[in-house]
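Section 5: illustrative case.
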């Protein structure tokens, strides 16, 4: 937080707040004009991913702001940031902002950003500390510390500790976390490890104080990061500038949480449709089995015709000899009918069953296609960004599965689907489609005929296109690993991946978006993992 505050001061002081968005229930995004450039300030009070940072990532900006966003826009849009400071070395940032009220008078506001796990908050006050509003209101019944409009803002209870930038105690006999402000357990372990190896405490503190970078370590499938390398973990690390590192770390987990928050209904709908069609298929196949084994109905009808003299109205069954095999067979009768009418009913049931077979086969085929389609959407949702998920929703609306919301707005030009684009170490471009709309556009509209197409065999997944006329073994394996990773076989081993030239693909008539017909192709078996992410550079 100390280094974030320092960087924000360098970039945002005396800058103008142009626009404010509420991008989720936990997040505020401010567009700020500073030093001749627009900057995006992300303020998140998410219980797991709370942070303050400048970001270069694209975030959704809803067209219909909530009440809190409208309040911030009223007071802060057009205002200037004149001070950004950290409270001690606590996880609290105070921003002082100068704006004007409805009468044109200059007004000073304060924004307090508390980054404290599930207790994180965004508090907006007047200069006299009277709270205008909070992103998360805390009433007297919830806590002794009241955070709601009209109350006076007070800091949360702060534990008295030494500031390592100001005071050095060389006789520390317990964990640095207990003695110094701002020390996490990981940082405390790092200092103990380095001091035991001969480094001086003051030298390490100076490294922390001057750092403008973030070092990300991968430890047992978990990412740890700090502003100095965590050498005690004995793992390799990647170095980024401070805000790029925060973008890198939070991007994937943030997107997944955003999709879960804002498209949970969509995920639930797709899963329900998939389950519904699975159940429907089971019922259709059982009915088809019964229809295919309906000869018994015809036999019973024939036996009843030969036994009309034995049947009287009111009988509920009759036992007769089956002259096909010599056995005795018990036949159920309708008490309201005579023998001839009962025989006729059995023939009607037989003919209905026979005639339904072609219809059942047709319905089974359609249901299998629906299962395959919704299965592909489930895979797409697993790998989707927020905007990918919106395109999936749009696709379902266009196909009539979901009802389009009627919103009065001017018609706007349809944008082309977004394609994730990467460069390999050999400067070869690789495109990835993350849903059916993107897959169809990539394969049949964007790609060149001489490009090579990759897709996991016989399972839903992304279309991967390599823009190069000649591929070496390394590039083939890399593209195959990407296709396997972004497929239903992501967690399997030895996943088969088909690859062929774009010009050999055909679009099937009457099929849903994203499906292809293969002609000549080759297959490679690959073990999917995310190691390919280290070998490619994202450019779009």
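Designed sequence:
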């Amino acid at each position: 937080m100390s280094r974030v505050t320092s960087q924000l001061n360098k970039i945002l002081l005396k800058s103008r707040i142009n626009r404010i968005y509420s991008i989720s229930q936990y997040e505020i995004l401010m567009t700020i004009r500073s030093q001749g450039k627009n900057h995006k300030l992300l303020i998140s009070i998410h219980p797991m991913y709370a942070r303050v940072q400048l970001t270069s990532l694209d975030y959704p900006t809803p067209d219909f702001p909530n009440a809190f966003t409208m309040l911030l826009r009223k007071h802060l849009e057009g205002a200037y940031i004149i001070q950004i400071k950290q409270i001690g070395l606590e996880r609290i940032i105070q921003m002082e902002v100068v704006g004007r009220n409805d009468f044109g008078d200059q007004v000073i506001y304060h924004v307090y950003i508390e980054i404290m796990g599930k207790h994180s908050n965004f508090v907006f006050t007047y200069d006299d500390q009277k709270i205008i509003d909070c992103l998360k209101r805390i009433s007297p019944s919830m806590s002794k510390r009241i955070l709601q409009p009209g109350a006076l803002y007070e800091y949360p209870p702060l534990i008295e500790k030494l500031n390592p930038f100001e005071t050095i105690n060389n006789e520390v006999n317990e964990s640095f976390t207990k003695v110094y402000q701002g020390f996490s357990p990981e940082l405390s372990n790092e200092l103990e490890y380095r001091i035991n190896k001969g480094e001086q405490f003051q030298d390490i503190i100076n490294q922390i104080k001057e750092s403008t970078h973030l070092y990300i370590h991968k430890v047992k499938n978990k990412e740890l990061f700090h502003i100095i390398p965590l050498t005690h973990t004995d793992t390799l690390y990647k170095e980024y500038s401070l805000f790029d590192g925060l973008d890198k770390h939070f991007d994937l987990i943030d997107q997944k949480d955003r999709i879960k928050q804002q498209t949970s209904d969509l995920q639930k709908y797709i899963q329900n449709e998939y389950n519904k069609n699975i159940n429907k298929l089971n019922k259709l196949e059982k009915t088809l089995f019964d229809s295919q084994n309906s000869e018994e109905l015809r036999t019973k009808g024939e036996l009843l015709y030969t036994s009309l003299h034995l049947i009287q109205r009111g009988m509920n069954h009759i036992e007769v000899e089956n002259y096909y095999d010599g056995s005795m067979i018990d036949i159920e009768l309708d008490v309201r009918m005579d023998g001839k009418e009962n025989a006729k009913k059995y023939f009607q049931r037989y003919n209905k069953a026979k005639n339904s077979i072609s219809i059942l086969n047709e319905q089974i085929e359609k249901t299998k296609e629906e299962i395959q389609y919704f299965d592909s959407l489930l895979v797409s949702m697993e790998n989707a960004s927020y905007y990918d998920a919106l395109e999936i929703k749009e696709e379902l609306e266009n196909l009539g599965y979901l009802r389009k919301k009627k919103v009065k707005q001017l018609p706007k030009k349809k944008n082309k689907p977004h394609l994730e684009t990467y460069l390999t170490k050999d400067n070869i471009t690789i495109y990835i489609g993350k849903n059916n709309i993107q897959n169809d556009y990539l394969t049949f509209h964007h790609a060149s005929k001489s490009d090579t197409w990759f897709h996991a065999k016989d399972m839903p997944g992304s279309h991967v296109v390599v823009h190069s006329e000649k591929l070496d073994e390394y590039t083939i394996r890399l593209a195959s690993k990407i296709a396997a990773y972004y497929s239903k076989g992501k967690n399997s081993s030895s996943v088969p991946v088909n690859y062929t030239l774009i010009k050999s693909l055909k679009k099937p008539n009457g099929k849903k978006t994203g499906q292809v017909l293969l002609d000549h192709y080759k297959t490679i078996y690959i073990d999917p993992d995310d190691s390919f992410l280290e070998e490619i550079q994202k450019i779009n």
